[in-house]
Known about the structure:
The protein is α+β, with helices and mostly antiparallel strands. Among the domains are: 3-166, no CATH class; 473-583, no CATH class. The chain has helices spanning 12-21, 55-67, 71-79, 86-92, 98-116, 138-142, 149-169, 194-198, 207-214, 218-230, 239-251, 255-268, 273-286, 289-305, 309-322, 327-339, 345-358, 362-375, 380-392, 396-412, 416-429, 434-498, 501-514, 524-537, 556-562, 569-583; strands at residues 3-6, 26-32, 35-42, 45-50, 123-128, 147-148, 176-179, 202-206, 234-236. The chain has a six-stranded antiparallel sheet. Strands 8-7-9 form a three-stranded antiparallel sheet. A hairpin with a 2-residue loop joins strand 3 and strand 4.
Amino acid sequence: MALHGELKNMTLPDILQSLKANRQSGTLTLQDGKKEFALFFENDSIVCVHPGRSSREYFPPIVCLFLNITEEKMEREFKKKLKLSIAKRLHKSRIAGASKINALHRVYLTESLYDAFTWQSGSFQFKEGKTPGAPFDEDQLDAGLELDIDKVLFESMRRADEWKLITKFIPTMDDVFTVVAGFSSHVDQFDEPMRSVLQFCSGQNSVKEIAYRSGLDLFTTAKIISDSLENQTVRRIAPSDLIDLAEQAFANGKREDALRYFKRAIELDRGNTDVRRRYADACMEMGIKNEATNEYKTLAQLARERQDYDRAKSFYRQIITVNPSEYEFQKRLYEMLHDINDPETRDTGLELAATFKRLGLRAEEANMLRQLIGDQPEDVACMELLGEAELSLGHDKTAAEIFFNAAELSAKNDDLQDACRNYDHVLEINPDDSKTRKRLDELQSGLYQKNRQRRRKIILAVEGGIVLVMLCLYLAYLTVSVIDYLALRNRNLHYLADGDFDRMHHAVNDFEMKFPFSLIKIDLPRYRKEIDRLHDAGRPATNPADSVQFNADTSSVVDGMSDSVPDSPVDSMVQEDISDTVTSLDSGGNIPEPPYHW
């Protein structure tokens, strides 16, 4: 007898009681949207369950938890081309006994059956048959399930009542618990099955994982944990604790454990962006780009919802860095920046246009550039890129118009080189365009004159700079010569007082050789003549200790040095000193002690 209908009209317990009363055998299928469940009913018992997925999809992770082996090892096992069920495959590889694996599978299938009792909507259909066929697979058939209908119905009602109490303490089976410090050393003293549950309450396993690892059903596991939580034997792990565990595991090189802790922390607090960001960064370091992209995408969406656009922009940039050819995220970033009038909107749009070009999507590139030009109608650079895109699409007339408009804007902005280049593009497309050629000739003529004037200005600026530098150097030269000249006059005053005419003569010669281009000129013939006359009038200069005879014209020696420069306060002082020295000569012609000591 075929049976079908809606669960809102006939619940699963009613369906099972009806099948038992009629002693029917066959497959009962439940469906609610994408959810699916099936069981095979035979001789008042449920002998097989299909939880909506094949065993290869859901069972290997459970086996990994139960046997405490890595997923990589399980993957290597499944790469072997053996047409065996999971239990037989693991038994053949001596990883675990088939009976042990089948017992674990029976626990999972039983829990799936009790989950089906919570369905409130959907459709059902029963097909009679003596043997189970599709959708049951070999592993589900080998599990050896045999559940009495009456016991299943009674247990489902009991669970329905007790689940309400359990969920007050454990709202989700993804919660993580750990034994309180005072009881952690006494776990072995508890009776079974409590001991099996508590030994896995280590702050690393969820309620579901504890059930799989201990080999118990989910209901029994959750009941023990809820009772322990009420008795303060265990406590719930906070997301911050899991983050600390994740970072510790990552630092110790246990990257898989670190990712597991991060995932658990995210499950406990899905709105915690800091946890998600750390998890995404860890995935990036491990090279898990798809997972990192998904997390950055979620982070960007959360940031946009909170109007934290700076963080959203940062997360979108991270996604683009990981997937430079994934233009969808660049598009989302551009749309967000455009909506908030961000200054980076144009640059982001150009990056998106460049991505379209790199991927060969020239039509999308042209549309993107049109949007940018719509926001900034005088953007010559975008117009040039749009002209190239239209030209690649075969739209010659449109491209010529765009290049012409770009040239006109460049000429308007006095950028003659860009204008000439864009006019050249127009003529390459349409060589017979007389209007464009005329405009190009005018601009090229004006560009030549402008370049000539620019070169002339540059030459004049360089020449002026050279003259200025030379003038500065010559002023420095004159300054040094004046300073040296003043020092020379002081030295000659000393030599005059000592009667050392030879040194006076050499000092003057040295000055002339050192500063041949100085404006200070000494009347050397007159100066030397006066020195020679004074020298002949007195004693030889080689014996400065002897007295020297001078006449009234002694001061002319200094006068010959000072005629060529104007008087200054310094010159006046030196002349007064020389006059004082000359007039202080005694009547015997002896030179007194020099008034200067150098």
